[in-house]
Amino acid sequence: MTRAAGPATVPLHDGPRERVPVVPVPGSPSRHRLPGRQASGPARERPAGRPRGDRGSMSVFVVIFSVVVFMLAGLLVDGGAAINARLRASDIAEQAARAAADQLDVDTLYTTGQVRLLGDEGAVCGKARKIVSEHGDPGVRLTRCRTGAGQAEVTVAVSVRWNAVFLAALGFAGSAMSGTATAAPDPGGQ
Questions:
Q1: What is the mean pLDDT of residues 56-83?
Q2: Domain map (residue ranges) of the chain
Q3: DSSP H stretches of helix in the chain
Q4: Sign of dihedral through CA atoms 25, 31, 34, 36?
């Protein structure tokens, strides 16, 4: 629509610039009608086929969709953090078990040729404790360390704490994941 300095006009077609005056519709300064035509219905008509009861339904959809997206983001981010914590716990437990399995009873090895761990479980598990503490993370802790099978192997369990990001808004702060590993000394050429 084009506006001019005088009475409002609208172009009829793309041909010559012939203009017809536009008459304002009573009661609505923004609605115009061509001369000789009657105003058709109220200023706001409801489109055909659209029921009256769906006003605001898009708002409900947006709210539900936002909650679903938030929950999926929580599943991806926080679920990934939980899986990462479990893998980290297993990795640290394997490192600690291998280090503890290096604590050989050298006297028994020389006298009998049999490979076994030290009889002092404190010394064997002390090495595992040292490996776990060297990670320097307060969420990582040694939960169990035992020698077994006649001093032939050591089992170490470690837990790693992870904190939720998205799910913390729903009251789930995270948890501790654990990993367990068993190692034995390698007899070498036997």
A1: 88
A2: 60-183
A3: 57-101, 106-112, 121-133
A4: negative
